């Protein structure tokens, strides 16, 4: 039997950020890689659905293994938890809390993390990651705050007409780099806003991004709209940006 105990030689700090923009305390999970040293500096991955990225995506264990076994660059991960009752309202571009959430991310979360941890502050050293609507809000954050973000991991992003209209407003996205994963079984996905063909929506959005010169790594693989699929594919996404 393999000894996986070394994969737990990392630190996860549970924290809470008081947000005046959201009018609440927002739980955070901060992953510090093996060998963490405050005198060094690290790239940082900001994950929407923080609790799920850690519990179902197993990002801490996965990243530790990649650092120890595959020479991946050590990184800090910031998981931003979400109240599922507000998730669509915050993550969907038309949601009533969407603008406030994006402002919170840029104006409260980043300064908070950067004042406490040795994360690099160049936009190329910040990675936004999200699944489904988490991928949507990650892309919109990059589009709305291009001086802060230019790299996105989208796991089966929920990209609909409103996102494509937003992309059309841009003249040139050659500064944007996005890793897009979609499962070929995601043709009939029920959501709060109806049932959608995520394969079609991602292919369309891929074309729109391509037309604006974004740098794209686009992958279609057999898989469903579930963490069981995303967890298996997460190492490839991490390798893409940190390998």
Contiguous helical run count: 8
Q: How widely separated are the two ends?
A: 28 Å
Number of strands: 10
Strand content: 15-25%
Specify the structural class.
Answer: alpha/beta
Label this structure with key terms.
243 residues; alpha/beta; Rossmann fold; 8 helices
Short description:
The protein is of the alpha/beta class and 243 residues long. It has helices spanning 50-55, 59-70, 87-91, 98-116, 133-144, 161-168, 198-211, 227-242; strands at 11-19, 24-32, 44-47, 76-80, 126-131, 151-155, 177-183, 189-191, 194-196, 215-221.
Characterise this structure:
- The chain is of the alpha/beta class.
- It has one domain: Rossmann fold (3-Layer(aba) Sandwich), CATH 3.40.50.1820.
- It is built from 8 helices and 10 strands.
- It has helices at about 50-55, 60-70, 85-90, 100-115, 135-145, 160-170, 200-210, 225-240; strands at about 10-20, 25-30, 45, 75-80, 125-130, 150-155, 175-185, 190, 195, 215-220.
- The strands form 2 sheets. The protein has an 8-stranded mixed beta sheet, with helices on both faces.
- Helix 4 crosses helix 5 and helix 6 (about 160-170) runs parallel beside helix 7 (about 200-210).
- The longest helix has 19 residues, at about 100-115.
- It is globular, with a radius of gyration of 17 Å.
- The two termini are about 30 Å apart.
